[in-house]
Amino acid sequence: MGEAVSFVLNGAKVRWTGPDGSRLLDVLRNEFGLTGTKCGCKEGECGACSVLIDHKLVNSCMVAMGSLEGAEITTIEGFSQTERFRALDRGFAAVSAVQCGFCIPGMVLAAEALLHRNGDPSEAEIREAISGNLCRCTGYNAIVKAIQIAAEEGKGLW
């Protein structure tokens, strides 16, 4: 037995066929070679595996492939080709918000999900938006500041 689903991955229509119960995280990394989606806990707790599904932030380790028929999935690789990514990239660089870098793909996608909904978020809204993404290096203050800079710089992008 197996599953087959068709979906859009980083702007391209794809069809995947594989074992029942396969998780999106494993398929992205092992079958599509999209290793920017990190494997942290495989329990939905750390946010390192965050991707966007239909513009909503989700932990890909918790998503069954069978649930993705017709979905639009964006990974950090796909998002990194956009002007919105460049605004976030400049914000993160401006305040040295990247240290080890492991959490950053998930943090950037969390920021994109927030800014897609609200292009002018408050500090509290930013902190809430990234609360599902663990970072052991920065203490979050630099990441919050980076998102604020990107929101200001990117007015009109979101």
List the helices and strands and how they pair.
Blueprint: E1 3-9, E2 12-18, H1 24-30, E3 50-53, E4 56-59, E5 72-74, H2 76-79, H3 83-94, H4 104-117, H5 123-129, H6 141-153
Parallel strand pairs: 1-5
Antiparallel strand pairs: 1-2, 3-4, 3-5
Helix pairs in contact: 3-6
Structure description:
The protein has 158 residues and is of the alpha+beta class. It is 36% helix and 16% strand. It contains six helices and five strands. It has helices spanning 24-30, 76-79, 83-94, 104-117, 123-129, 141-153; strands at 3-9, 12-18, 50-53, 56-59, 72-74. Strands 2-1-5-3-4 form a five-stranded mixed beta sheet. It is globular and about 50 Å long. The N and C termini lie far apart (42 Å). 41% of the residues are buried. The model has no long low-confidence stretch (mean pLDDT 96).
Cα-to-Cα separation, first versus last residue: 42 Å
**How large is the share of residues in beta strands?**
15-25%
In which range does the helix fraction lie?
A: 25-40%
- Indicate the structural class: alpha+beta
Low-confidence residue ranges: none
Strand count = 5
Task: Compute the average pLDDT.
Answer: 96
For the CA atoms, what is the radius of gyration?
15 Å
The gist of it:
The chain has 158 residues and is of the alpha+beta class.
Task: Pick out its properties.
alpha+beta; 36% helix; 6 helices; 5-stranded mixed beta sheet
